[in-house]
Prior knowledge:
The structure is a single chain. The protein is α/β, with parallel strands linked by helices. The chain is built from 9 helices and 6 strands; from the N terminus they run βαααααβαβααβαββ. It has helices at about 20-35, 40-60, 65-80, 85-100, 110-120, 130-140, 155, 165-170, 185-195; strands spanning about 5-10, 120-125, 145-150, 180-185, 200-205, 215-220. Strand 4, helix 9 (about 185-195) and strand 5 form a beta-alpha-beta unit. The longest helix is centred in the N-terminal third of the chain and has 20 residues, at about 40-60.
Amino acid sequence: MNNKITDVFFDLDHTLWDFDKNSALTFEKIFKLNAVDVDITEFLFHYEPINLQYWKLFREEKIDKESLRFRRLNDAFLAINKVMDEELIYKLSEDYITHLSSFNHLFENTIEILDYLSLKYSLHIITNGFKEVQQKKLMHSKIDHYFKTVTNSEAVGVKKPNPKIFNYAIEIANTSANRSIMIGDNYEADILGANNIGMDTIFFDVTNQSFDGNIKQIDNLIHLKKYL
């Protein structure tokens, strides 16, 4: 247990909120709504890595939000040899954002660990996700009340791993880097980004692939009890 830590910062997608599961359910729903006939398993097999690649470009400020939303879908359809009308892709990208927060599966032990940590620390969110969607996710999954602050990249104007977003989050939380710890699933954005401004970190990786022996790592949120 780290006695000097007062503030615990979480990423949201892929860390607390089970993005892949909720995203798959959203695609099932919007494909039915728009009468899109594709094999959902095959589509997701291609979409998920494509989506991660575009988020990396988005983090690096190489594409904007609209390009991300359109191109990840267009590329996934092309990968399964499905040529789609451009208007329909734009409609699907809008429907996806609209319906995504209607599914709210959390990772195993999310509520239990938030209950445990909230008695001892101030809890916060730092997310690169889109502001309008992230707030809905927190509310609809009924975890918004755990967090004193929510820092969103759209509001700050930069994305993790940019030090500005971490410094902003620390400032509005009224704390300091050496009293804070960041927990997230993205090694580059969450772990290296937070380390760069002097924050402690815990890497959440459900696949439990060791990235760096010097980094604290967990594959289930309940294991945060070992460190906090």
